[in-house]
Amino acid sequence: MTFTKVAISGTSSESGKTTLMCQLLPELPNWEAIKMTRGHYRSCGKDPHACCVSNLLGEQPLIRSGFQQTYASEKDTGRYWEAGAANVHWVIVTDDQVARGVQLALARVKAPGVLIEGNSFLNYVDVDFSVLVVNVDEQTRMKASTRWAFAKASALYTSDPAAEALHHLKTRYSADTGRSEIPVYMPGEFSKLLARVQHVHELRSGVHGH
Question: Of 175, 176, 164, which is closest to residue 137 (Cα–Cα)?
Answer without folding.
Answer: 164
